[in-house]
Amino acid sequence: MSAPVRLGTVEDALDALRAGRPVLVADSPERENEADVILAAQSATPEWVAWTIRHSSGYLCAPMPAARADALELPLMVPRSEDPRRTAYTVTVDAARGVTTGISAADRAHTLRTLADPSSGPESLIRPGHVLPLRAVPGGVLHRAGHTEAAVDLCRLAGLEPVGAIAELVNDDGTMVRLPEAAGLAERDGLVLLTIEHLVAWRRAHDPVDATGADDTGPGGGAADAPAQPRVHATHTAYLPTRHGDFRIHGYRDMRTGAEHVALVSTAGLAAEPVVRVHSECLTGDAFGSARCDCGPQLDAALALAARDGGAVVYLRGHEGRGIGLLAKVAAYALQDAGRDTVEANLDLGWPADRREYGAAAAILADLGVTRVRLLTNNPAKVTGLQAHGVAVTEVRSLEVGRTPHNEAYLRTKATAMGHVLPGLDARGAPPVRTDPVHAAPPRPGTDTTDHVLDATPDPTPDPTLTNQETPA
Description:
Layout: H1 10-18, E1 23-26, E2 35-40, H2 46-54, E3 61-65, H3 66-71, E4 93-95, H4 105-116, E5 125-136, H5 147-157, E6 164-168, H6 179-189, E7 192-195, H7 196-206, E8 232-241, E9 246-254, E10 260-266, E11 275-280, H8 283-286, H9 295-309, E12 312-316, H10 320-323, H11 326-337, H12 342-348, H13 359-367, E13 372-376, H14 380-388, E14 392-399, H15 408-418, E15 435-436, E16 466-470
Parallel strand pairs: 1-7, 3-5, 11-12, 11-13, 13-14
Antiparallel strand pairs: 1-2, 2-6, 4-5, 8-9, 9-10, 10-12, 14-16, 15-16
């Protein structure tokens, strides 16, 4: 059995950055499952930059608030990113003065310090160069649980200029460093190891500013000085009988987006670790029965399981078309009719592949008193999104329903391009884990729901509709 990983505290990490030392930060196994070196750009030295280059691929990035990038006139590298992680690369830069070729550790350290210097302007940099600035999203890790936002948050919380330097750790054989290997490196070199999940939890407790659109523009200040505002406001609760079972429907108003969300909670009560589905609004699939997606059958299956097992379905409005809106989704469908896939269509229209986030879902679960869930999803981003906001996902159950000839290509793209777990379609090539003998939508006694479950048959052999994947608590 491997030894437990020793993690430092956020306070340890802030002290290290103030002292000019790097910290190692790992993200979720369901996201990139990688560890990065993070330095404060204002105190970057040739020695620590050289150390970072030696333990990484040498691809050195400089996260900063979008307002800082605007002030330095650093536009996005491309107007439409095709990166599934939506990393916001700008044009590359070198310092305009004080460097030679720009590639040495000393030159890159100087460029990093120039980026962090409040007196620097657009004329302080030349383009292109050897350092890759990144634009962090407002709200930091409370909005996007990535290394870009973690670097800016840590520098700001340390009272430093909110500009970092990050690089992905790489083993000598070229493979990516995972958490256990990062722990060994931290132990050997006396560095602090942290996870983004712990940073999110720390910020929620000590710096609870959600992504309201404010920018983190100054050391120790910016958005962190604003008063905390709850993400959702509970409105009303009522009894809601459905064909799947009886629920209490809870209404919520999203205080950041204005969207109106609901949660359907089984009247049987919530289990200690309830089955939960976080369902993104899909008018065409949920209401019209569209066969272009699997959303309707997934919703039916989730409601039936929640009613049967003491669970809940959180229904998020504003997520139509993975967050691009109904009419934009129709436009994307038109592009798919012409041969584009679901990701390419979004990108062609100027949208990211997926612009959803799950802070509201986590806030709704918190209001319901739910801290640990067995999540019904094929989408690793939902796991990461909930975990980043303090919800422990103890089990992931993959919904294998609604596959038709009309959506086979759509589902394959979600598996291969977006990492969705769909046995037989996902790019990882791994066989599905244990399959539960549970029908897609277990009917209430005396209720015929076969018209809501695609490809339903009277065959007594159960369909393999749910796949269990154990994840660490």
